[in-house]
Amino acid sequence: MNSVHTPAAPQDGVQPMVSFRDVRKSFGALEVLKGIDLDVMPGQVAALIGRSGSGKSTALRCINGLEKINGGELTVCGRNLRARDFELRELRKEVGIVFQSYNLFPHLTVEQNVTLAPRKVNGLDASESRALAAEVLEQVGLSDKASSYPEQLSGGQQQRVAIARSLAMRPKLMLFDEVTSALDPELTGEVLRVIGKLAAGGMTMVLVTHEMAFARQVADLVVYMHQGRVWEAGKGTMLDDPQTVELRQFVGSGL
Ligand code: ADP
Ligand code: MG
C-alpha cells in the first residue's frame, strides 16, 4: 500500500475531534472502560489495538453514542456526550461507523444501498442521488458496480459498499471496527487500501484493527488497550520497542 499520510501538525486553538477524559463505562457490575484518556485531532488516524475483551469496541461505540458513558468526559465533534444535550441523530450524521458485518440490503442495488440514508435525511432527488453514489463509489473503487446487487459482489466489495454508504453522509469522522476480520485474507488488502486512501485524503478516523502492519503504517496514534485502560499509546514505532510486558507479549503473539 502507498499511503502518504502525514500526521496533522499540532495547531494552536484547534480542538480535538474526539476527546476522552477519564472515561468510564460499565455493563452492570462489570467495568469495561476504567478511565480512558485519548485525543484525536482533525485529520488524524487513531488505531485501537489489543486483546479481545480489552474494551476497544466499547470505546468506539461510545464515540457515536451507541454506548452511554458512566463517568468522565467525552467530547466528539464539539458535543459533550456526557451531557447529551443534543440530538443523537445529529451526531450520527457526522460520525460514520462501519462494522465487521456490512449488513447491506439484499433487495436493493449498490446505488440504492449507498443513497438510502442521504435520500431520507437530506431529501435528495434522483439525479442528486445518482451523482452522490457515483462520487462515493469512485472513492471505494466500485464505480462499475452501481447497479449490482450485494449478492453479486465479493465480501471485500460489499464491505467497500458499506464504507461508501457511510461516506455518502459526508461524515467528519469515521469509525471502523475490525472491518476486515470477516474477510478472506486475499480480500483484506482491497478494503485496507480504501481506508488508507481516505486517511491520506485527510479523513479523521478511529479504527479497531488486528492488522498490525496496517495500523503502524496508517495511524498517527496507535493505542494499545489492555483490561479497559490505555496501556500504551504513541506512534506506530512504539510497536518496535514496547515499554510494557503486556504490549511486548501482544506484539509477540502475532495477534
Ligand atoms: P474488544 O472489542 O476489545 O474485544 P469489547 O469492548 O467488545 O472488547 O468488550 C469489552 C468487555 O465488555 C468484554 O468483557 C465484553 O464481554 C463486555 N461487553 C461488551 N459489550 C457488552 C454488553 N452490551 N453487555 C455486557 N457486557 C458487554
Ligand atoms: Mg471488538
Automatic annotation (TrEMBL):
GO terms for cellular component: plasma membrane. It comes from the Bacteria. InterPro entries: AAA+_ATPase, ABC_ATPase_HisP-typ, ABC_transporter-like_ATP-bd, ABC_transporter-like_CS, MetN_ABC_transporter-like, P-loop_NTPase. Pfam families: ABC_tran. CDD domains: ABC_HisP_GlnQ. PROSITE patterns: ABC_TRANSPORTER_1, ABC_TRANSPORTER_2. Belongs to the ABC transporter superfamily. This is Polar amino acid transport system ATP-binding protein. The lineage of its organism: Bacteria, Pseudomonadati, Pseudomonadota, Alphaproteobacteria, Hyphomicrobiales.
